[in-house]
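Thread title: Can someone regenerate the structure for this chain?

I was given the following input by a collaborator and told the matching structure tokens would be attached. They weren't. Posting the sequence so someone can regenerate them.
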Amino acid sequence: MIRIDEIWLDIEPLDMRAGPDTALALVVKVVGAARPHCAYLFANRCGNRMKVLLHDGLGIWLCTRRLNQGKFYWAGNRHGDCVELFSEKVMALVQGLSWQHLSTDSVISVV
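Best answer:
Regenerated them for you:
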């Protein structure tokens, strides 16, 4: 298993043609450095595709997820911002659920 200590959500859309080097360059530009055991999440402009850049301490992984219906509930589009997410909110996000209104006990109270 890959250990992930922190998960960061990039607010700015990413061109889904971007490979690992482009995604890594964006992380370095926005966050300052890609730290070991961190994941960085990106979405396309339409919000139906996501890429996750993982730094496992030895190298990087680039994973892709696509929703056939609906879209990912991403944060607002503000240039150069990142949001730190916790595991419950990430699980809701990658399943296409509204993570912004997830309470501390993992209950979605507002849609």
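Residues 6-94 form one domain.
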